[in-house]
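Dear colleague,

As promised, here are the two records you asked about, laid out in our usual form so they can be pasted straight into your sheet.

NAME FIELD: protein one
SEQUENCE, THEN STRUCTURE:
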Amino acid sequence: MPDFILSETRFAVAAIALNRLEVLNAWHAPMRDARVAALDAAEADEAICAIVITGAGERAFVAGQDLTETKAFDPDRAEFWIAAWERRYDRIRSLSKPLRTRRKPSASG
């Protein structure tokens, strides 16, 4: 399975990088699930004091939702998809640690 999320700890900060370079880090279900797992791990680790989410590569932080995932949805699938998004946002809202998103600066500045 590809690593859609790259995680590392720097000092007391969990660095979580979105990693789908071929689609400018656009989200799809496996990436979103991996991001939640990385957030769960950072939240559970008492040595982590803060979390930073960034995009891998130099071209984009995140392009948003990968819409190829949604083009064949029926009403039941759409309802499931929306509920999954709610769970993911609830994870972010319930973090006890500060969270920041950050675009990496380019080599030119």
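NAME FIELD: protein two
SEQUENCE, THEN STRUCTURE:
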Amino acid sequence: MSAFLKVENLDLFYGDAQALAGVSLEVPRGEIVAIVGANGAGKSSLIRAIAGIEKSRSGKIQFKDKGISGLEPHDICNLGIGQVAEGRQVFPTLSVEENLEMGGMLPRARAGSKQKIGEIYAMFPQIAERKDQLAGTLSGGEQQMLSIGRCLMGNPELIMFDEPSLGLAPLVVQEVLHTIRTLNRNGITVLLVEQNVAVSLKISNHAYVLENGSIVMSGPGGELLHDDRVRQAYLGL
């Protein structure tokens, strides 16, 4: 069976600096796949390349057997790939509800947008209580929930999470990770980039270790969690 998302031999440069070198990975439908690695390893560059924000120099990206390399970000979103970006990136001067409405403007999502807002408020009651509040005045955790909700408004089949726990309190981190697991159980495929390596490996079906722009290890999340090289390099054990 072909992969839901497949990346083959991806090379990405910023000027003369190579950010990704021959990266290949597969994300099966319905699974959580984690990308782990140190700061500067190329994790966010990989997410941005899949999303169409950065254009790769060579290699292929396929989603549901369709080549998406070179497509514009809005076209990739409309195929069913959503992104929860690092730093949340809500529209601070718009209300919570206006932020959600922005997420529902994709052609694939417009018909069911009103119903979807209701579903998101049911999922995140804390932002439902603040639907008329400016997004920039929300706490970090509330902004992350809004960012996830806005992504869900686009009716994605696969969501890429880029450092979803960054800057959040431990209790809020647990809430965000619980949300990711719940979305996955409800049928959404997840590509997770997360600095918290232990947590990433615990909740992922499969994981890839990225170092200096290249995949150096891969395997089931649980196996990598107990691999001595991973424990020494990323868990301080």
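A couple of things worth noting about protein two: The longest strand covers residues 17-27. Residues 170-185 form the longest helix (16 residues).

Best,
R.
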